[in-house]
TrEMBL record:
Belongs to the sodium:neurotransmitter symporter (SNF) (TC 2.A.22) family. SUPFAM superfamilies: SNF-like. Its main location: membrane. Keywords: Membrane, Symport, Transmembrane, Transmembrane helix, Transport. This is Transporter. The keyword Lipid metabolism does not apply.
Length: 454
């Protein structure tokens, strides 16, 4: 399958495969579930603009950094640093990433499980003839149950493991090619419907008219954390995927395509959700349930809503799957290469361990809800620690590593294989990874922990 120097490693077979896999990783629950929910919590437009600024100034350069590290080392997130910086502590960035993958997939699987449960509900026409309040109640009852969500979560984990065992590149290329465009089409329909609802204007204002006085230190850190989360950065996903990319691939193009696709889809999700939120009198800051209590109301009112709602939750589950496999792959590649385990054994071990933590996340919505830390239940805690702590810290060190350790010459060499980065762009990139990204991340984090006050 591959004709790479290292011989026995997998690789993506086509240029499209690379973009499809990286976009498949990026586009997921982060765009459609998490972005609207946290934008709602942190006040809408002001949050959106800060998030977009972080995508540009930090997300883009860190994504290119990860691909450079991955492709030049041809190793997993931990092994990559051992190859590129032997005998140095840089490798611990990789460990942080493997840890982040654990935490993220534990709660990600829960939400994906809800999405699968909503496919079933849609098939049964379970939302029809229900008021917005009843739909809200339906969601709460569903996630608090100790059995069903756990079963759907485990089904999702088994599906993810199945694809990872077969090998990423065989699994994804085919599916992303057809299903991602379909997801975009459904989103277009949803946007049109949502925007034409009575009272939609308030939702568009909420999403696009910033009131920067609403911004809090928490909101800024969440925007930063989400920039990493949504682009699959900071934990070595794109180091791992980068290691499967062939030398003739244009890394800069890949980065731009993936970032644009991810951002557009998040914006579309916002346009589909917020007008409806306001039209139906739903609370925008209600949290993780936002899309699940909003969208069924929209489907209700659409001609063909029955079919749309089934399709939407199927595609959402698939989008979640192409992301979850990229998270799982970080852990699997690490077990495989660092402990000399087989692909199958590594996948099973990783899936079992993550699922145990995942079940606790699911139960923390119901029976385990009394157990909290800093006011967060287990689910929110895993989300908060991974997105707002592990990913930004990981991203900061990845930027520093490429900026200061690898350096301009090595970056230029790696990027020049299959692409170009003109002198000026290269200088901008180096400036961003050496200074802007690390300093901005440090300031946002220190500010959030009250160690630095503005
Ligand atoms: N980017 C994915 C999403 O938006 C989630 C993800 C995070 C995937 C971290 C890989 C690594 O849903
Ligand atoms: Na995303």
């Amino acid at each position: 399958m591959s004709n790479l120097p290292s011989g026995n490693r997998d690789s993506f077979s086509s240029k499209f495969g690379v973009i499809a896999a990286a976009a498949g990783s990026a586009v997921g629950l982060g765009n459609i579930w998490k972005f609207p929910y946290i934008a709602g919590v942190y006040g809408g437009a002001a949050f959106l603009f800060v998030y977009l600024a972080f995508i540009l100034a930090i997300g883009l350069p860190v994504m290119l950094s990860e691909l450079i590290i991955g492709r030049s080392s041809r190793k997993n997130a931990f092994g990559a640093f051992k190859v590129l910086a032997p005998g140095t502590p840089w490798r611990y960035i990789g460990i942080l990433g493997v840890g982040a993958a654990f935490l993220i997939l534990s709660f990600y699987g829960v939400v994906a499980g809800w999405s699968i449960e909503y496919i079933v509900l849609s098939l049964k026409n379970g939302f029809s003839a229900k008021s917005p309040d009843e739909i809200g109640l339906l969601f709460t009852t569903l996630i608090e149950s100790p059995v069903k969500p756990v079963i759907f979560q485990l089904i999702f984990m088994v599906l993810s493991a199945g694809i990872v065992i077969v090998g990423i590149q065989k699994g994804i290329e085919k599916y992303t090619k057809i299903l991602m465009p379909l997801l975009v089409i459904i989103l277009v329909f949803l946007c049109v419907k949502s925007v034409s609802l009575e009272g939609a204007k308030a939702g568009l204002n909420f999403l696009f008219k910033p009131d920067f006085s609403k911004l809090t230190a928490d909101g800024i850190l969440s925007a930063l954390g989400h920039a990493f989360f949504t682009l699959s950065l900071g934990m070595g996903t794109l180091i791992t995927y980068g290691s499967y990319i062939q030398k003739d691939n244009n890394l800069v193009n890949t980065v731009i395509n993936v970032t644009v696709a991810d951002t557009v889809i998040a914006l579309m999700a916002g346009i589909a959700i917020f007008p409806a939120v306001f039209a139906f009198g739903i609370e925008p800051s209600q949290g993780p349930g936002l899309i699940f209590v909003t969208l069924p109301n929209v489907f209700h009112q659409m001609p063909g809503g029955y079919v749309f709602s089934i399709l939407f939750f199927v595609l959402l589950s698939v989008a979640a799957l192409t992301s979850s496999i990229s998270i799982l792959e970080v852990v699997v590649a690490y077990f495989k290469e660092e402990f000399n385990m087989g692909r199958k054994a590594s996948t099973i071990l990783a899936t079992v361990l993550i699922s145990i933590l995942g079940v606790l996340c699911s139960l923390s919505m119901g029976v385990l809800s009394p157990y909290t830390f800093m006011g967060l239940n287990i689910f929110d805690l895993m989300d908060w620690i991974s997105a707002n702590l592990f990913l930004p810290v990981g991203g900061m060190f990845i930027a520093l590593f490429v900026g200061w350790y690898l350096g301009r010459k090595k970056v230029k060499e790696e990027v020049a294989q299959g692409g170009t980065l003109s002198g000026a762009l290269l200088s901008i990139f180096m400036f961003l990874v050496k200074f802007i990204a690390p300093i901005a991340i440090a300031i946002v984090m220190l500010n959030n922990f009250g160690l630095l006050k503005f």
